[in-house]
Amino acid sequence: MFVAIMIWLVCGIFAASIAQTKGYSGCLWAIIGFMFGPLAMIGVGLMEKKEAPAEPADDLRACPFCSEMIKVTAIKCRHCGSEVTPLR
């Protein structure tokens, strides 16, 4: 019985560490790993890695009035309607 509990605990720890390297919640996957054991490790192993948020493009800037992203050449913000000075 003790060995079986240890195996499930180890599965939870491994599932959490795999999930964190892929950008998912390690705490959540530790709980799932404790509950489902080897199935959780297989499931998190097959999951895709989360994409990092994209960096703003070089042709975008933040509107000085509402902070939404607008084109560098814009003369009016499409979000708040304020007139802005184009940077190019």
Question: Which properties best describe this structure?
Answer:
single chain, about 90 residues, mainly alpha
Could you give the topology of this structure?
Layout: H1 2-21, H2 26-36, H3 38-46, E1 60-62, E2 69-71
Antiparallel strand pairs: 1-2
Helix pairs in contact: 1-2, 1-3, 2-3
Overview of the molecule:
It is a single chain. The protein is mainly alpha-helical and 88 residues long. The protein folds into two domains: 2-46, no CATH class; 54-88. 45% of the residues lie in helices and 7% in strands. It contains three helices and two strands. The chain has helices at 2-21, 26-36, 38-46; strands spanning 60-62, 69-71. Strands 1-2 form a two-stranded antiparallel ribbon. Strand 1 (60-62) and strand 2 (69-71) form a beta hairpin. Helix 1 (2-21) runs antiparallel to helix 2 (26-36), helix 1 packs parallel to helix 3 and helix 2 (26-36) crosses helix 3 (38-46). It is rod-shaped. The model has no long low-confidence stretch (mean pLDDT 90).
